[in-house]
Amino acid sequence: MQVMIDRSSVGSLNLARDGSIQELCIPAARLPKEQALTLTFHTDAAVQSPAALKMSGDTRLLNFAISRMSVEPCQPNP
């Protein structure tokens, strides 16, 4: 899955069904200075409903779920 700020990729994450923790360090220079941070997640993976996956009765077509997300300062690896 590509992670973007203002239609520009800042990195990628692997979609996993195991609830694994994913980390992405975005350099400070790529963050907006005067406005809120808006992240866009883009994936080409097929969409399915939770009902089709026998997870619930929810028939909405969904692509992925985020159960928890935090934003913290980081230092990019050289």
How many individual β-strands? 3
Please tally the helical runs, counting DSSP H or I stretches of 4 or more residues: 0
Largest sheet: 3 strands, antiparallel
Overall body shape: elongated
Q: State mean pLDDT (0 to 100 scale).
A: 85
Going by helix content, strand content and strand pairing, the class is mainly beta
Residue fraction in strands: 15-25%
Query: What are the low-pLDDT stretches, counting only 5+ consecutive residues below 50?
Result: none
The end-to-end distance, rounded to whole angstroms, is 23 Å
Report strand order across the widest sheet.
2-1-3
Oligomeric form: single chain
Which percent range fits the helix content?
under 10%
Our count of domains comes out at 1
Rg calc? 15 Å
Tell me the series of helices and strands, N- to C-terminal: EEE
Describe the overall structure.
- The protein has 78 residues and is mostly beta strands.
- The protein has one domain (1-78).
- It is built from no helices and three strands.
- It has a three-stranded antiparallel β-sheet, with no helix packed on it.
- A hairpin with a 2-residue loop joins strand 1 (2-5) and strand 2 (8-12).
- The protein is elongated, with a radius of gyration of 15 Å.
- The model has no long low-confidence stretch (mean pLDDT 85).
Tell me briefly what this model is.
The protein is built from no helices and three strands.
Pick out its properties:
three-stranded antiparallel β-sheet, 78 residues, elongated, mainly beta, single chain
